[in-house]
């Protein structure tokens, strides 16, 4: 029987967000050690069922090893997704198909997180190589949604989403190649910003990719936590080519022009189910009540065509990981241990290899088309994060044929990849519930560099329609 899984309780963490925990530490109401001990107790309470943790680094966390004492979030516990490096620990990428080497250094983004004062508790779960939208790992097991144990927390930042929503930690690393921050945010009732391209430090090695579709970020329960993180991150790394963000802390003052896409016929790419359409219309009504101008437009790109090129690019990533693992992860990948989905995705690339230049060109050149058709006329584009409500465990099982998973994935999450290709920022917010009571997220995107605008709008929305968390259920 499905049930919720959460760690919120009457301890020193209570229902505090990351900003609240940081304030308690700064004011010496609690010590960093006490906060870590309370977090450990929460992990031990829920993780046996939730299965969101790959490894723990409790000894280092008890001493806040590596955390910047002058950072805003000093002492606040966090988890790193298992596709980034923590010095002295393995990085397994959600698979056991190779024997990893111990990391000699932190990943660049891990150093950024430590610079904000965050205290690393360990690593969170993900699907094999981060290629699926759900973690139902054949080696590490299934990661479950805290709102309902029968459902996925989304992916590929599955463990991070589950840990934040369940109250184990208030902030955790996520990263996003086609919605992997925003999808868990939508499934778990969280705030998830995919920033503008090059807003934050990128994945190690991303400069060698034909198209950089990967973005680092975090998942939180409050807009103020996300805003504070980006303000602190800017102290560590500031891209001079993008407008500075600073600390966004106030709701939006000016009124915006918002575009929403028309709903295609059922069965077509981009069509949404009844629950999702209802929440989207409720979001439109809220924006209208706040004085924003909302207009429906035709989808400016062929969603099915875009998904075809996106999946071909993901096939390329699977092919490179499985065939050239010795170069990428410094260890040979045992093909006999690779999950059927990963293997099938790599074979899809082999089958369509001569189409790959076209796919790369399409992903690279989608920017001018979207900029011209949308953001020259509108401030915000509103879409759902996913086209259907959160699926049950098994809907995206890696044991299914790769053809079936690709079909389901294309139907499930056709929207988020567009911003990965364009580089534009996109923010997932929990805007409602489906008919089962599970969170449902909407995506707000803006022109390249307009991350602060999204956070200002998010503050306004959060104040007008606060979302409930598990501790309030």
- Determine the mean pLDDT: 93
How much of the sequence is in beta strands? 5-15%
Judging from the principal axes of the Cα atoms, what is the shape? globular
The total strand number stands at 13
Class based on secondary structure composition and strand pairing: alpha+beta
> How would a textbook summarize the main sheet?
8 strands, mixed
SSE pattern = HHEHEHEEEHEHEEHEHEHHHHHEHHEEH
Low-confidence stretches: none
The rounded Rg comes to 20 Å
The number of helical segments is: 16
Strand order, largest beta sheet = 6-8-7-12-13-11-9-10
Span between termini: 18 Å
**Fraction of residues in H or I helices:** 25-40%
What do these coordinates show?
The chain is of the alpha+beta class. 37% of the residues lie in helices and 14% in strands. The strands form 3 sheets. Strands 6-8-7-12-13-11-9-10 form an 8-stranded mixed sheet, sandwiched between helices. Strands 1-3-2 form a 3-stranded mixed sheet. Strand 4 and strand 5 form a beta hairpin. Helix 7 runs antiparallel to helix 16 and helix 11 (340-351) crosses helix 14.
């Amino acid at each position: 029987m499905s049930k919720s899984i959460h760690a919120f309780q009457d301890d020193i963490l209570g229902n505090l967000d990351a900003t609240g925990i940081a304030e308690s530490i700064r004011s010496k109401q609690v010590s960093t050690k006490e906060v870590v001990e309370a977090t450990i107790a929460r992990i031990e309470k829920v993780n046996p069922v939730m299965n969101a943790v790959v490894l723990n680094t409790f000894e280092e966390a008890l001493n806040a090893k590596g955390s910047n004492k002058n950072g805003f979030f000093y002492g606040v516990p966090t988890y790193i997704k298992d596709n980034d490096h923590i010095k002295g620990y393995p990085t397994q990428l959600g698979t056991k198909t190779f024997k990893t080497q111990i990391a000699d250094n932190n990943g660049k983004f891990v150093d950024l997180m430590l610079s904000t004062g965050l205290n690393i508790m360990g690593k969170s779960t993900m699907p094999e190589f981060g290629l699926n939208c759900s973690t139902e790992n054949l080696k590490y097991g299934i990661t479950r949604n805290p709102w309902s144990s029968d459902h996925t927390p989304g992916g590929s930042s599955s463990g991070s989403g589950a840990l934040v929503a369940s109250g184990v930690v208030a902030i955790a690393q996520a990263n996003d190649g086609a919605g992997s921050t925003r999808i868990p945010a939508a499934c778990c009732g969280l705030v998830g910003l995919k920033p503008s391209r090059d807003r934050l430090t990128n994945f190690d090695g991303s400069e060698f990719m034909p198209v950089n579709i990967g973005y680092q970020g975090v998942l939180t329960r409050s807009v103020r936590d996300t805003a504070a993180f980006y303000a602190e991150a800017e102290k560590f790394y500031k891209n001079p080519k993008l407008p500075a963000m600073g600390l966004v802390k106030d709701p939006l003052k000016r009124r915006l022009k918002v575009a929403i896409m028309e709903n295609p016929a059922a069965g077509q790419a981009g069509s949404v189910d009844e629950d999702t359409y209802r929440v989207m219309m409720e979001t439109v009504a809220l924006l209208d009540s706040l004085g924003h101008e909302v207009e429906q437009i035709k989808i400016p790109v062929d969603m099915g065509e875009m998904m075809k090129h996106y999946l071909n690019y993901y096939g390329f990533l699977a092919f490179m990981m499985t065939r050239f693992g010795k170069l990428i992860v410094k260890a040979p990948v045992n093909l006999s241990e690779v999950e059927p989905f990963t293997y099938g995705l790599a074979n899809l690339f082999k089958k369509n290899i001569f189409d790959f230049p076209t796919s790369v060109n399409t992903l690279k050149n989608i920017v001018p088309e979207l900029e011209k058709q949308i953001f020259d006329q509108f401030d915000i584009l509103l879409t759902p994060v996913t086209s259907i409500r959160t699926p049950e465990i098994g809907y995206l099982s890696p044991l299914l044929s790769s053809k079936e998973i690709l079909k389901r994935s294309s139907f499930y999450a056709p929207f988020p990849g567009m911003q990965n290709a364009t580089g534009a920022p996109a923010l997932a917010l929990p805007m409602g519930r489906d008919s089962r009571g599970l969170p449902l997220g909407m995506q707000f995107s803006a022109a390249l560099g307009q991350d602060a605008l999204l956070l200002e709008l998010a503050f306004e929305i959060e104040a007008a329609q606060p979302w409930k968390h598990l501790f309030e259920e």
